[in-house]
Amino acid sequence: MSDQQYGPYYGQHDPYGQQYGQHYEPHEPQGPYAAPAQDPYAAPQQGTYDGHPYGDGYGAPPQAHPQTQTWDGATWETDARQPAHASAAAETTHLPGQQAAAQPAAHQEPAPRPAPADAEDLSRLAPNQRARALGHSPVIPPGFQPAALTAGLAVLLALAAPLPRVFPALVVAVLQAVTAAGWFRLNGMWPARQGIALAFLGGLVTDVALLATDRDDAPVVGIGTLGVWCLLVLVLQLRNRSSADERMYALTAGLTSSALAVLAAGHLAAAPHATVIGAAAVAVAVLARALPLPGPVSVVLALLAATGAGIAAGQLGDHGTAGAVLGLAAGGCALIGLRVASYDYPSRFVHLTAGVALPLALAAPAVYVLGRALG
Fold it and tell me: From which domain of life does this come (predicted)?
């Protein structure tokens, strides 16, 4: 007999401590349709229905108490507190011949589920999602395509450096625009049109000021532009109605992006031969770092390649030793830029902006300072 035959209140307790459905007195039919007399010494006939024992009718003899049938199955309360396999085992343990077989079943653990994703499903995920699903490191290198774009931009800068300063200024302006957009997106702030435009404008103002002054005045121009732009970024954040934490986060991202755009102008302020050496070293370093090699081997190979490119480019202007030092420094700065652009599951847009611009932008201060120090 199933639980539903006792109604929705089966398994509840009344105020007097009795449980509805726990005991009942069967109704014995009277008259000519009464059940035939049963042999008091005959074994009771039992069966099961849905795992619950039942007799052969109203005339079945009681098992424990006269005129009383006890429900030994699971109630709604007990069934809700134990798993299905344990409940089923508990319901059938009292049946003849099944007690020994039911004991091991109550302790069986459910079969483990198969892996939710296979190789085909993982191939459809984005690189950052695939790394997260496999439990890999949150650092994802930009790869060969951003490295090729960085190398192409560095080659354009190296070719334009010996020309009048207007030509390298155009290449530097493109570098500053990509740097400003990539830094905001790397910090998870998108869209941030006002911050990106303000940082890019700071780079353009620096370029114009460098074109109007001598190369020796580049530090004064850079520091002056950074001072003014820090004030402008503060004014811009005064209009921000976000929370205090979000305003502070936007303030730091705006200041850093503006500083990187201004520092990228160091290629325009450096001597032409230093710009050529630094650009060549950055191009070779990012390409070597993108090769499918182990991490430490790739880093060492990239630094050696940058040093060799610096020596080769320095031979064009009789700066062999200086070219090696400048190439090594520029290559190291490029690797730092790649590492920053690879952090915390970056997106494809980050790789094609920050991953392209940061290696070349961070190398600009080293190119300017070492170019002047090494002659």
Answer: Bacteria
